[in-house]
Design a protein that fits this description.
The protein is mostly helical. It is built from ten helices and six strands. Among the domains are: 52 residues, no CATH class; 53 residues, no CATH class. The strands form three sheets. It has a two-stranded antiparallel ribbon with strand order 1-2. Keywords: Heme, Iron, Metal-binding. GO terms for molecular function: heme binding; iron ion binding; monooxygenase activity; oxidoreductase activity, acting on paired donors, with incorporation or reduction of molecular oxygen. Pfam families: p450.
């Protein structure tokens, strides 16, 4: 299984875009690093020239108004440069991670079929997004898929404030970057049980435990709000 390179949704993406736009793309060829001074090369390599062109069409006095992801960027006040950076991120990271997660979850579902009473009727019509969000077992399958096979790699970093911070009785100096592994975090037996390495969507249902695990995903990311 190939290990995808980590691309984080942070300010670093915009800086990366600026550097490659100004100095070109650093391409790995065998054991050598080839520095290219043509910033257009990156656009050719990634096949996103049309996306950049469409981004330019949305800005300016005669900018095209359209309700899609790019239109949402414009509505939320992103500049053209920031929008182009986000486009790059979405094409490289968003599409790959989404497709990988869907494939992995379907594989787990096929190799471990859901409980008979939870299996949907074969001849029912296609459900809407609103209906899907209100199907507890489907939502449990999605959450369990994200848990057992997180579509992100690398270690998500947060940085302590200049004055430092105390966490669980331990002082962390200011400017320290704290990292955590999604793969390891989502396999903690003290949180998910002794079967943390198994695909079991039922663990997310309230009927399986006192409170269910519905808030775990948000709780993990919210627990480190002090680390910025």
């Amino acid at each position: 299984m190939a290990l995808l390179k980590t691309i984080t949704g942070s300010r670093g993406d915009l800086e990366f875009y600026k550097v490659t736009k100004k100095y070109g793309c650093l391409t790995r060829i065998g054991p050598n690093d080839l520095l290219n001074d043509d910033p257009v090369l990156m656009r050719h390599m990634l096949g996103v020239r049309s996306a950049y062109r469409r981004s330019a069409e949305r800005f300016g006095s005669g900018g095209k108004v359209q309700r899609d992801m790019l239109g949402s960027f414009v509505t939320h006040g992103l500049t053209q440069e920031e929008a182009e950076s986000e486009i790059l991120l979405q094409i490289i990271a968003g599409s790959d991670t989404t497709a990988t997660e869907i494939r992995a979850t379907l594989l787990y579902v096929m190799t471990k079929p859901p409980r008979p009473q939870q299996t949907p009727t074969r001849n029912r019509p296609i459900i809407t997004d609103a209906e899907a969000r209100n199907l507890p077992y489907l939502q449990a399958v999605i959450k369990e898929g994200l848990r057992i096979f997180p579509p992100v790699v690398g270690l998500m970093a947060k940085q302590t404030p200049p004055e430092g911070d105390t966490w669980n009785g331990a002082f962390i100096p200011g400017g320290t970057r704290v990292w955590w592994s999604a793969w390891a975090m989502f396999r903690r037996q003290d949180v998910f049980g002794d079967d943390a390495d198994e695909f079991r969507p039922e663990r997310w249902l309230a009927e399986e435990c006192e409170d269910g695990l519905g808030g775990i995903m948000g709780g993990i990311s919210a627990s480190d709000d002090r680390l910025r």
